[in-house]
Amino acid sequence: MASRLASEVARQSLPGSSQIHLVPGADHTRLFVSNGSRYYKIADTTAAHLQQLIQQGDETAIHRELVAMGLHTPPAIDDTPLQDPPVHALSLAIAQKCNMGCTYCYADQGDFGGPAKNMQLDTAKKSIDLLLDNAEPGRKVQVTFLGGEPLINRPALREATIYAAEAGARKNIPVHFSITTNGTLLKPDDATFFETYGFAVTVSLDGIGAQHDRQRPFKSGAGTYQHIIEKIQPLLRTQQQMQVSARVTVTPGQNDLGETLLEFVNMGFHSVGFSPLLRAANGRDEMTKQDLKTMLEGMIACGLLFEQHVLQGKRFPFLNMINALKEIGKNTHRPYPCGAGAGYMGVSADGGLFACHRFVNEPAGSMGNIYDGVDSTLQNNWLASRHVHQQTPCSSCWAQYLCGGGCHHEVLEKGRHACDYIRGWLHYTLQAHERLSRLAPDWFM
């Protein structure tokens, strides 16, 4: 069923109009209006007429139809880029080193192309000061610890966490914490620490057993899967304030995402998410357009599992699906794909500020440093150049404001070969949103 549905979704989700998109449903076609990401039930005759206009490429006539239907509104997003947005989230490269030898690491085996190093505690504290100095009382901020492998520098990570929590409390600024870890260095008392400070813990697990071991071995070449599974058990048992998630990087040859999803859900993860490998530092294992077609089929199979569980009244923490349904439900429309270079920045071990954790030590994403602060010229030039209206072919795509233009780092390094996959996934989740809104409305409350 998933294979047949994926083929139909791929066909139906192709770009046609930048203003509208038609989404066939069980009873009526739904009209998705790009401006404001709005969603309407329409008559079959209206759908047929709009489909004809889409096929003709008549954007002027489509605009007239939206006016006649009372659906034309002023643009929710114009050409004006963000200007000097305050930073409310920082990721600290607390350890620019790693104990693993992952085949595709974006951070060049954890050292970001330079000498392996730890972030000094003073640098972490200065980063936190910058974050809190720009925050308003009562508004939450986010501190994320990344690497490399952040637990290599456990003492600084813990001290920085305590420092941020106490400084935030003094200023009436809630500080939320997260960490992405390979899981190999976890100790039992990490579970207690992460629970105390309410961490969101993301563990990188790229499949079950041998699949994971092929992609994420130790530098010696030895497998890591069973080692990690043993190490994460205290976290899975302890999580209450803490939430422990699994992140799966998908490469060619991973053909059964549903099996992986069920394994990790049954293991007790708070959520499980998949992300295609579009750019690797060494060029290995990157997904082609054909690989992404296969992945879309697997993702839809996972989505159908999610729908089945929801209809049975069961929680099913498939993160990609949950996030997509929430975005659709709140009519998300955005000029950027994420907060990179705006509300979110990455900090290198030496205190450099970068557009996000993936740009650490890359001049293209430089945003200043923690000592002098954000360089507003660099930041505003970045935000002007990365606005979705400045991206090609985004301006002709119906999904432009749901997508926001795609991951900046991947697009700048590899281009836009994932567009069909992104559109296909969004089309499927629009259909799923209609089905679940009708059959399981309580899920959205």
TrEMBL record:
Keyword tags: Iron, Iron-sulfur, Metal-binding, S-adenosyl-L-methionine
Radical SAM core domain sequence ranges? 84-315
Recorded superkingdom: Bacteria
Q: Which GO terms describe its molecular function?
A: iron-sulfur cluster binding; metal ion binding; oxidoreductase activity
Report the cofactors.
[4Fe-4S] cluster
Q: Which InterPro entries match?
A: 4Fe4S-binding_SPASM_dom, Aldolase_TIM, rSAM, rSAM_sf, Sulphatase_maturase_rSAM
Family recorded in the similarity comment = Belongs to the radical SAM superfamily. Anaerobic sulfatase-maturating enzyme family.
The protein's name is Radical SAM protein
Organism (species): Chitinophaga eiseniae
